[in-house]
Amino acid sequence: MKVEGAEHVPATGPLLLASNHLSVTDSTFLPVALGRKITFMAKAEYFTGRGPWGRFVSWFMSRDGQVAVDRDDTRAAVRSLDSCLEVLERGDPFGIYPEGTRSPDGRLYRGRTGVAWLALRSKAPVVPVAMFGTDRVLPPGAIIPRPARVRVVFGKPIQLSAIATDPENARDRRAATDAIVAAIADISGQDYVPRYAPRATA
Question: 111-115 — which CB contacts under 8 Å span 24+ positions?
Fold first, then answer.
């Protein structure tokens, strides 16, 4: 794994890492690249898996303190943001994928505004992240990881104060979200798709 842009990342204190999302292994490589424990928002299905692999994933997510989100229940998803905010308020890093799901084709999709709500409420530094090669380590639907070159690039912290200030204002949340996704696109080089990504079925 190669890490670039580490000089842009604060060594201590709250930190909101907003990353593109190519593979479930993104949440494994990003903490290694950062060198600090990162709490992530994870879909609720990871906490209710069956079979040996499903039970292992459920145990790992629960043990590691990840925040479950029910993507089919909007109100529950919104409530889960409060738990994410608590992570930042106690001074720890939090990782989020603004697209809300893995990219189905390697392109970067429209961001969901939860990332902006967290950024504007917490006022934590927002660092864009670009992951490369993780989709070759574990493509969607695969179970056994493969060897591949992985690169993690940290961008400069995003200055949102001139773009948006009110986390409760829908226009401010959208403007801030779009700015965050644009920063990710700038360092990832991905083509941008101005619509929400379809959820992976595998």
Answer: 111/177, 111/178, 111/180, 111/181, 112/177, 112/196, 113/170, 113/173, 113/174, 113/176, 113/177, 114/41, 114/77, 114/78, 114/81, 114/84, 115/16, 115/18, 115/176, 115/177, 115/180
Q: Which residues of 94-123 are buried (b: 16+ CB within 10 A; e: fewer)?
A: bbbbbbbbbbeeeebbbbbbbbbbbbbbbe
Amino acid at residue number 125? P
3-state class of 195 per DSSP? coil
pLDDT digits (tens, 9 = 90+) for 62-93: 555 577 676 665 666 677 899 899 999 999 99
Question: pTM above 0.85?
Answer: yes
Segment (H or E) for 2: strand 2-4
Beta strand extents in 64-135 (DSSP E only): 67-69, 93-96, 108-109, 126-132
Considering only the C-alpha atoms of the chain, give the largest distance between any 2 of them, rounded to a whole number of Å. 49
Q: Environment class of residue 36 by beta-carbon count within 10 Å: exposed (0-12), middle (13-18) or buried (19+)?
A: middle
CA separation for the pair 134, 152 (Å, rounded) = 9
